[in-house]
Amino acid sequence: MNARNLALNLLNEIIYNNKFSNKLLNKTKEKSNLSKSDIFFVFKLVYGVIQYKIYLEYVVNKLLKTEVKNKKIFIILLMALYQFKFLNSKGYFVVNESVLLAKKIDSNYAALVNAVVRKLENKELWIVNIKNKKNIIPLTKGIPFWLYDFIKKQYGQSIADDWLNDVNNNEHLYLRLNSEIMDEKHFLNNYKELLNAEKFELTKNFYKINNKIFETDLLKYGTVYLQDPLSGLACEVLNPKSNSKIIDMCCAPGGKLSYLYNLTKGTSKIVGIEKNLSKKNILYKNLERQNIKNVEIFFIDALEYDSKELFNYVLLDAPCSGFGVIKNKPEIRLKKHNKNSFVELYNIQGKLLEKAYSMLDVNGELVYSTCTINKNENEYQINKFLNNHKDLKKTYEKQFFGYEYNTNGFYICKLIKT
Length: 418
Known about the structure:
Binding site for S-adenosyl-L-methionine: 250-256, 274, 301, 317
InterPro entries: MeTrfase_RsmB-F_NOP2_cat, MeTrfase_RsmB-F_NOP2_dom, NusB-like_sf, NusB_RsmB_TIM44, RCMT, SAM-dependent_MTases_sf
Oligomer: single chain
Number of domains: 4
Pfam families: Methyltr_RsmB-F, NusB
Strand content: 5-15%
GO biological process, one term: regulation of DNA-templated transcription
Shape: globular
Radius of gyration: 23 Å
CATH class of the largest domain: Alpha Beta
Number of strands: 11
CATH superfamily of the largest domain: Vaccinia Virus protein VP39
Family: Belongs to the class I-like SAM-binding methyltransferase superfamily. RsmB/NOP family.
Structural class: alpha/beta
């Protein structure tokens, strides 16, 4: 199977079967026999088509008189346009490869694909011309109009535009150094130049790096862990002391759980709760690779966890809309939302906060975090929670946007029970 055929199959799974792009691509990287350059192309093509799908559909539909009922054939057209506009691919090559793909799926569409793809190379066709001019930029960025308006209503024009301009900038990679295995001096002396490592300014053990990390054994032996630094910052804000009791209420795939272990040098009792049983293997694999021991894991809904004791530290990285990680999970922008779906999400978050409170000891500390920029899930959710619990004191709150530090968007709030 060549690169374009693989990309087509992956896109079909992501768009029509609601699979996560990052999971499928990472699995592909591990198991595919394609060359590194072909794998890189597959990543670029899959992420790109998902990122710009709304815009690509707008342009392709200019040329279609009727709907293309075969879903894979339609994806081939989107792939072709992306290659022309964003990868500057050669016209004859894109046409030829697109027709070959179409013949494998349904030869009856070969002529249509040939005709449409040839026309897609025309740059005048790429111009967006819609009545509502304020929606031109969101459309060209592949962002639904409703989502751009949603962010603008919550934060204003300036922040919404900064967010929009950054929304497809996923060219960032960070690692967390496991200082229990390798100290900072040794890491920098041996890997700074190779990885172009730059210390992340807000955290202790995080570095911005390049893709050469995959050419080393650092990941294999748990010396480092790939993790967004703001995810790690949530753990540092919690700042657990040694010999304490800690619970991570939504712990897979184990990044924050393992960092809490490292921060307390393995001296604390740590409990991890994970509702999604499908994440069991990756969670245990990540913990084992980092040599994390003596951590209790329960695969159960956190709301159903029957805690026999109270905890000094509670970390609740709550399920959320994910608007902060659209850069790395571009399919989030394609998800259909309505008032009811949001209300259900807000209710779950509220219930999880109440559960966290019930497990928090006096003078205990709770960090609530999400990877979204939706105020209803973040500060408004916390304000409602605080109104119900006057014995809680807010000591830290920050909404991060991806464009500020070249990360994902993230929200962190710390509360102390008095």
